[in-house]
Amino acid sequence: MPDNLAYKEKPREELLDGKIYMMSSPSINHNRVASHIFNAFYNYLKGKTCEAFSDGVDVHLTENDCVIPDIMIICNNDIIKPNGIYGAPDLIVEVISPGTAKNDRGYKKNLYEKTGVKEYWIADPFSRSIETYLLSDGKYNLEDIYAVFPDGFGITDKEREESKKIIPVSLYDGFSIPLKEIFSNLF
Fold first, then answer.
1. Of all residues in the chain, what percent are helix, strand and coil, respectively (each to 5)?
2. How many CB atoms lie within 10 A of CB 47?
3. Are the CB atoms for 12 and 161 separated by under 8 Å?
4. In sequence order, what are the residues at sequence separation of 6 or more whose Cβ sits closer than 8 angstroms to the Cβ of residue 173?
5. What is the pLDDT of residue 7?
6. pLDDT per position as a tens digit, 46-91
7. Cα-flanking dihedrals φ and ψ of residue 42, to 5°?
8. Which residues face 15 on adjacent strands?
9. What is the pTM of this model?
């Protein structure tokens, strides 16, 4: 690419507890999972008051915390500004990788809880699972863990039959996403 481009993206970085963390480029599986979830959110929310956003949008939660979630839903348009989101999204999804799992399950989960994110999903492309947390009385409660079990995974037919194959989105009654759509086409 030529050096004289008028537009250049800033480096991808998050500010967590006042410390800068550089973000790496996502893997193909990470990108596919995030895209599938975003597309489901985007398509469902057309014409509704909430809006879906994908990776790349700065979310300013505190003076010392600016994150870039993989996917989020915002229902309060007042927090959407031209240069980012200023306040807590209603739902955040982080697609974890080995390098981000500790922060996504630790500091960021606690930050989202503290700042009032109503629903938090941790999607794991490797295990093909999603943990969902719902905020109740200021604390996250693990709502459930949803997983796709590939053939040969070592579970019984009964366990496979009883496993939850559809993940609900608590913000809307009747909005759910089949896990096979989220984890399709992965390596």
1. 25, 35, 45
2. 5
3. no
4. none
5. 45
6. 999 999 999 889 999 999 999 999 999 999 999 999 999 999 999 9
7. -60, -50
8. 20, 66
9. 0.90
What single letter denotes the amino acid at residue 106?
A: G
CB contact set of 128 (below 8 Å; sequence gap of 6+): 147, 148, 149, 150, 179, 183, 186
Three-state DSSP at 155 gives coil
pLDDT tens per residue, range 103-131: 999 999 999 999 999 999 999 999 999 99
- Residue 161: C-alpha distances to residues 59, 66, 74, 124, 156 (Å): 39, 41, 34, 21, 9
Using CB atoms within 10 A of its CB, is residue 33 exposed (0-12), middle (13-18) or buried (19+)? buried
User: Per DSSP, what are the bridge partners of residue 122?
Assistant: 94, 131
